Amino acid sequence: MKKHNFNAGPSILPQETITETAKAILDFNGSGLSLMEISHRSKDFQSVLDETTDLFKELLNIPSGYSVIFLGGGASLQFCMVPFNLLEKKAAYLNTGTWANKAEKEAKLFGEVVEVASSKDANYNYIPKDYKIPSDADYFHITTNNTIFGTEIHTDLESPVTLVADMSSDIFSRPVDVSKYGLIYGGAQKNLAPAGVTFVVVKDEILGKVTRKIPTMLDYRTHVENGSMFNTPPVVPIYAAMETLRWLKKNGGVEAAYKRNKEKAEMLYGEIDRNSIFKGTCQVEDRSLMNVCFVMKDEYKEYEADFLKFATDRGMVGIKGHRSVGGFRASIYNAMPIESVQALVNCMKDFEKQTAK
Ligand SMILES: *Cc1c(COP(=O)(O)O)cnc(C)c1O
């Protein structure tokens, strides 16, 4: 049976990424050696890193004055690297969910943190909009897509101070005006590559401003100056990222992906709103294009396990909701074909037919 992969992360990747990476692991560029057993400083790997960096810049339309670096440690290490490198006295954070919270917690180790707003009061089912960013903050940190709760900041915010964004789960899903941001980071395992590589897009001029000493490996400048080769980079995930970006470019780039993502999300949210037994969990205007959260209406609560089994039997994978929301979550990242979304919608329709009172 065909599997429809709605996992939240690690998650679906383009089939080409998987096939081409598997080939390179067996025989890299016809060298007779595996991608896993060659020097990261070899000419062949350098060209992989260069192409990945170039595609990043091209597809995100990154202006000059920015560097793209690839690191280890996941987005979670960025929660600490960001304040280590940028927080001199005070930072502002927008609390929109679990990941935003974790980022904020780390910043408190380095200085004063102002939480400008939080949607915790409503289990993070919306994006706060009325708040003031202190103009004396060193930076303002946001999480553009809240993977767990299914909300998303759909526009590039105006900020009077350096804007820092965790884009782990919506990078390359919509066009972004990078010039509005000082730093963008994310783990690769949602929309780009297998876990193991973290991307950072940083405006060079914001670095080197704090007075504290920064350990070499945690200093962004180390990795900028050494072109992500200060130490051995995660070569296999970087290779996979290159294949995903080649695939994205071939399929029309970020604009075209955005169009497909909107179509997929509209199809699924449309069914959630139409269907008499399901309902969405988030404020409509803040609904994520990547992670679609929904639950059973109160009068159908007892059918939750039944629907999960019904959908699983039809090849749906990874739709069980996160424990902090319950119900269901369908992650429909860039690589998710619309046919899979249609298959889930059909499941919901058929389950309604046999269940609706
Ligand atoms: C998954 C995720 C993280 C955590 O990423 P790691 O690479 O596992 O540290 C952080 N932020 C967001 C928005 C995420 O979706």
Strand order of the largest sheet: 2-10-9-8-5-3-4
- What is the fold named in CATH at topology level of the largest domain? Aspartate Aminotransferase, domain 2
Q: What small molecules are bound in this structure? A: pyridoxal-5'-phosphate
Quaternary arrangement of the chains shown?
A: single chain
Strand content: 15-25%
CATH superfamily of the largest domain: Type I PLP-dependent aspartate aminotransferase-like (Major domain)
- Return the average pLDDT rounded to an integer: 98
Give the % helix. 25-40%
Query: In the CATH hierarchy, what is the architecture of the largest domain at level 2?
Result: 3-Layer(aba) Sandwich
Structural shape: globular
Number of separate domains = 2
Cα(first) to Cα(last) distance is 31 Å
Radius of gyration, CA atoms, in whole angstroms: 21 Å
Structure description:
- This protein has 357 residues and is of the alpha/beta class.
- The chain is 35% helix and 17% strand.
- It has 9 helices and 14 strands.
- It has a 7-stranded mixed sheet, sandwiched between helices. A 3-stranded antiparallel sheet has the order 11-12-14, covered by helices on one side. It has a two-stranded parallel ribbon with strand order 1-13.
- Strand 3, helix 4 and strand 4 form a beta-alpha-beta unit.
- Helix 1 crosses helix 6, helix 2 crosses helix 6 and helix 3 runs parallel beside helix 4.
- The protein is globular, with a radius of gyration of 21 Å.
- The protein binds pyridoxal-5'-phosphate.
- The site of pyridoxal-5'-phosphate (PLP) has 12 residues, from helix 3.
